[in-house]
Amino acid sequence: MTNVELFYRFGIALALGLLVGLEREYSHADEGQTPLFGGARTFPLIALTGCAAALIASEVTPWFFPVAFAAVTGLVMAAYAATAAKGDVGLTTEVTSLVVFLCGALAYWDYLLLAAAVTVTTLALLSLKTTLHDLSRRISRQDIYATLKFAIITVIILPLLPNRTYGPLDVLNPQQIWLMVVFISGISFCGYVLIKLVGPRQGIGLTGLLGGLVSSTAVTLSFSQRSQKASHLARPFTLAITVASTTMFIRVLFEAFVLNPALARVLAIPLVAAAGVGLAACAYLWFTEHTSEQGEVAVSNPFELGPAIKFGLLFAVILFISKAAQAYLGNAGVYLSSIVAGLTDVDAITLSMTRLASEATISHVTAARAIVLAAMSNTAVKAGIVATMGASSLRRHVLPTFAVILITGVVIAFLAG
């Protein structure tokens, strides 16, 4: 190792420690407290100690690193005992110092990206103290149990499921089916956490955006029902429903891109066009009338085991039907099954078409058209919800936009192919 490289690694360790130290200084000052353990000088020194300990362990004796870590831990525990005696029993700063020590060592061992990632993650956790505490208060016991059950089932059961196909059409793979359940639930869970972060009540437009990550149908149903009692908020409700439906198109495109980038490139043209119509309508509604009215979307934890199993079964059924329809009816059968599947769920048909296209069972163009038809079928269902459950003022705003989205998506999907 050259001196330049050696100084570079120690410099990275110093910079990472300094960032954490500055955050600790700012955090204590912002809370009106005096730093009791370490700040902008102590944490860089700890990072340098970790880097130097890794150097000595590599060049002299490997035992030096655990001894140095134990010594730093002893100093940290002594500092904690002193602060705890004064009534401050928090361990955040003390644990952070050990993380900084290890990041310094990672910097010497040339795991620079990992050291930076751990430091940034640490800074995020430290900076989001208030937000995370608020989130913990909003999470219910049922949320924790649901997430824990799903995590156990996924971590334990997923590796044990057979990774082979079954059935007459040789298409049902238990492990891949459950993996798709985890994938979709993960996306929905991100939206669910965001809703928890911003609170159960937020601006109507934000409700549509976050709700669209979980279920655009739930958003449509919720605001259609509310419009009956608050018809004067038809335009804000239209904004939420349109934003949620537009988010659905982006979500579908993201799912396809992660699983099959080649299919996503074909799918991008019609979905982006449909989303563009929705975005244009949202921009018009936002700039012509803005309201501070608060919205609320009722969604459940997507990691509930029951809904996850139902989605897995739905995905398996749609996958089987789609392949059977293609085998016996050709592309027309695929399109018909997609329209029917889209009436209830877009994610399942998206994953099914992505899987069949990856296996070259159907072409990318056929798969893209099928996904677009499913998305448009789902949009038609939401239009039906608005037509039957929404106030007349809501119908006048939503239905024309949905009609243009439907026409745009279907026409471009078949013309682009």
Rg, rounded, reads 27 Å
Q: Fraction of residues in helices?
A: over 70%
Q: What is the total number of structural domains?
A: 2
The ordered H/E elements are HHHHHHHHEHHHHEHHHHH
Low-confidence stretches: none
Oligomer type? single chain
Across the major sheet, the strand order is 1-2
Distance between the termini: 56 Å
- Average pLDDT across residues? 80
Structural class: mainly alpha
- Biggest sheet layout: 2 strands, antiparallel
- The gross shape turns out to be globular
Q: What is the strand tally?
A: 2
How much of the sequence lies in strands comes to under 5%
Q: How many DSSP helices? A: 17
Question: What is the structure about, briefly put?
Answer:
This protein has 417 residues and is an all-alpha fold.
Notable features of this structure?
single chain; 417 residues; mainly alpha; 2 domains; two-stranded antiparallel sheet; 2 strands
Structure, explained:
The mean pLDDT is 80. The chain has a two-stranded antiparallel ribbon with strand order 1-2. The protein folds into two domains: 3-127, no CATH class; 135-416, no CATH class. Helix 1 (3-30) runs antiparallel to helix 2 (42-59), helix 12 (261-288) runs parallel beside helix 16 (364-389) and helix 14 runs parallel beside helix 16. The protein has helices at 3-30, 42-59, 64-85, 92-108, 112-127, 129-138, 141-160, 174-198, 204-214, 216-227, 234-259, 261-288, 305-329, 331-342, 346-358, 364-389, 392-416, and strands at residues 202-203, 294-295. The chain is globular and about 70 Å long. It is mainly α and 417 residues long. It contains 17 helices and two strands.
